[in-house]
Write a structure and sequence with these properties.
403 residues, globular, Growth Hormone, Chain: A, mainly alpha, single chain, 77% helix
Length: 403
C-alpha cells in the first residue's frame, strides 16, 4: 500500500513537506496552553485579548510575508516561520506573567503568517508543475492536513504522558525536539518554481493587482467572506476550547486526549474538503450540520462537546480548504501566496473584535452563554454559502494560469 502510494510522483515530491508537517504538528503545549495561561494570571477576557493580539500580529505580518514568498522563496519563508515557532515556544514557556506571554505570542503570529498561503500554494504549483493541472488539489493538500493533524493528535496524547511525570510548563520545552526535526526535514523539500516565471512586477503593482482580483470579482469576494466566517468560528474553538473543561472542572489528565479529539477533526478536514469540492451534496450536508453543531455546545457533557469540536473543526477547515482552492483558481502563480495571505488577513479583521467580545462574555456570564453568540455567525455562514456557485459546476471551465 505504502509502495503504491509513493509511486505517485506528487507524493514523492511532497514527502519532505509531509514529514516536516508531521513533526511540526507535535506541539505538546497546545493541549494545555489555557491551563498554563490561567496559572500565570490570565482570565477569559485576557485570553480573548491575547488571541486578538495574535490576530493583529497576523494582520501585520501576513501580506508582506505572502508577497515575499511569491517574489523570493516559499520554502525560505516557511523555514523562517519554523524558526519563529521555536522562538515562540521558548519564550512562552519562560513567561511567568501576562505581558511577556502576550508579547512572545507575536513570534507565534509570525509563524502562522509564514505558513498562510505558502503551504497550499506549493501544493497547488507542484500539481501544475508535475501534471500540468490543478486537478486533485484538495486531495493532495488534504494529505498535508491529515499528516499534520496526525502530528497534532500525537502531540495531545504525548502531552498527557508528560503531565504524568512533569509540569505543564515542561510541555513547551519537550516540544523543541520535534520542531527541530521539522526544520531539518523541510530543508530537503524541492519547491516548485512557477512563481519565478515571467517578468517581476513592482511590489506595489503586485499588491494592487492582487487586491483588485480578490475584491472586485464578486465570486472571489463571496468566497473570502465565507472563509472569514469559517476562520472566525475555528479561532473561537481553537483559542477557547479549554474553557469548556475548565468550566466543568475536568481533571488535567483529560486535556490532552480532548485536544487530540479536536485536532483529529483538523486531520480529517483534508479528505472532507476533497469530497465537498467535488460533490455538492457533500457540501450541503456539511452546511446542514453548522447550526446543530453550534447549538450542541450548550450540552454540559465533555464527551459530547469533544465530539462536537471534532465535527465542527473538520467541517470549518474543509470549507476553508475549499475556499483556498477557489482563490488559487482565480490568480496566477506569481500572486498565489499573496492572494491566499490577503484572504487570511481579511479573516483576521473579522476575528479580532469577535474573539475579544467572546472572552468578555465568558467572564460576564459563562462559556455556555457566550457560545450562544456563535449561532448568528453560523447562520450568516449558511446564507453566504448559498450565494455562490459550487466549484464542481464550473470546474471544467477553470483555466490554469501559471504565468
Amino acid at each position: 500500500m505504502i509502495k503504491k502510494l509513493f509511486a505517485d510522483p506528487i507524493h514523492k515530491r511532497l514527502l519532505p513537506l509531509y514529514l516536516s508537517r508531521f513533526f511540526g504538528g507535535i506541539v505538546l503545549w497546545y493541549a494545555v496552553e489555557k491551563v498554563y495561561m490561567s496559572s500565570i494570571g490570565f482570565d477569559a477576557t485576557l485570553i480573548g485579548i491575547s488571541a486578538a493580539v495574535l490576530s493583529v500580529g497576523i494582520l501585520v505580518f501576513e501580506v508582506p510575508l505572502g508577497i515575499l514568498a511569491d517574489r523570493w522563496s516559499r520554502k525560505g519563508v516557511m523555514l523562517i516561520g519554523e524558526g519563529s515557532l521555536i522562538l515562540a515556544t521558548i519564550g512562552l514557556g519562560l513567561s511567568e506573567s501576562v505581558l511577556p506571554y502576550i508579547l512572545c505570542s507575536l513570534f507565534y503570529s509570525f509563524y502562522i503568517s509564514s505558513n498562510s498561503g505558502a503551504v497550499d500554494s506549493v501544493v497547488y504549483d507542484t500539481l501544475l508543475e508535475e501534471k500540468g493541472s490543478r486537478k486533485g488539489f484538495e486531495r493532495y493538500y488534504g494529505y498535508v492536513q491529515m499528516i499534520q493533524g496526525a502530528g497534532l493528535v500525537l502531540g495531545g496524547l504525548v502531552s498527557a504522558l508528560v503531565l504524568s511525570f512533569d509540569s505543564v510548563r515542561s510541555t513547551y520545552f519537550w516540544t523543541l525536539i520535534p520542531l527541530a526535526l521539522s526544520v531539518f526535514l523541510l530543508s530537503f523539500y524541492r519547491e516548485p518554481r512557477l512563481h519565478k516565471q515571467g517578468d517581476v512586477e513592482k511590489i506595489f503593482t503586485q499588491f494592487k493587482g492582487t487586491l483588485k482580483i480578490l475584491f472586485f470579482q464578486r465570486e472571489l469576494l463571496k468566497i473570502m467572506i465565507f472563509m472569514a466566517l469559517c476562520m472566525t468560528l475555528l479561532e473561537v474553538i481553537y483559542e477557547m476550547d479549554q474553557l469548556w473543561p475548565l468550566a466543568l472542572a475536568m481533571p488535567l489528565i483529560w486535556y490532552g486526549p480532548l485536544n487530540s479529539l479536536l485536532l483529529l477533526g483538523d486531520a480529517l478536514s483534508g479528505p472532507l474538503a476533497a469530497k465537498i469540492a467535488d460533490h455538492k451534496k457533500w457540501f450541503m450536508l456539511a452546511v446542514a450540520l453548522v447550526l446543530p453543531g453550534l447549538a450542541a455546545l450548550q450540552i454540559k457533557n465533555m464527551v459530547v462537546i469533544g465530539l462536537v469540536f471534532f465535527i465542527l473543526v473538520a467541517i470549518y477547515n474543509a470549507f476553508y480548504i475549499y475556499g483556498q482552492g477557489v482563490i488559487h483558481d482565480g490568480v496566477s502563480s506569481a500572486r498565489r501566496t499573496g492572494a491566499s495571505s490577503l484572504a487570511s488577513m481579511f479573516s483576521s479583521l473579522v476575528i479580532v473584535p469577535m474573539i475579544i467580545g467572546f472572552g468578555y462574555l465568558v467572564d460576564e456570564d459563562s462559556i455556555f452563554s457566550a457560545a450562544l453568540w456563535l449561532l448568528p455567525v453560523g447562520a450568516i455562514l449558511i446564507v453566504v454559502s448559498m450565494s455562490f456557485e459550487h466549484r464542481s459546476k464550473r470546474a471544467n471551465s477553470i483555466v490554469e494560469n501559471t504565468a
